[in-house]
Amino acid sequence: MLTVLGGVAQFEREGIAKAKSGRKPIAPERQQQVARLAAEGATKTSIARQLGMGEATVSRILGAGKGSTVAS
Prior knowledge:
The protein is an all-alpha fold. The chain has 4 helices and no strands. The protein has a single domain (2-65), classed as Orthogonal Bundle (Arc Repressor Mutant, subunit A). It has helices at residues 2-21, 28-39, 44-51, 55-65. Helix 2 (28-39) crosses helix 4 (55-65) and helix 3 crosses helix 4 (55-65).
């Protein structure tokens, strides 16, 4: 039983790593659009709809920008 659980855990780790490596990088222009809309007071949901991306992507962009400066 422990072997089966260990195998499932390994598949999970590999799947997560594969999903992360398969992400396409987001163009700097799109990141700037997200930052600009957020600075104007738009919600994450409205930004995602306007730019045709997921809310998680918007959150990731805004979260990454907190420690660095995003050029306007």
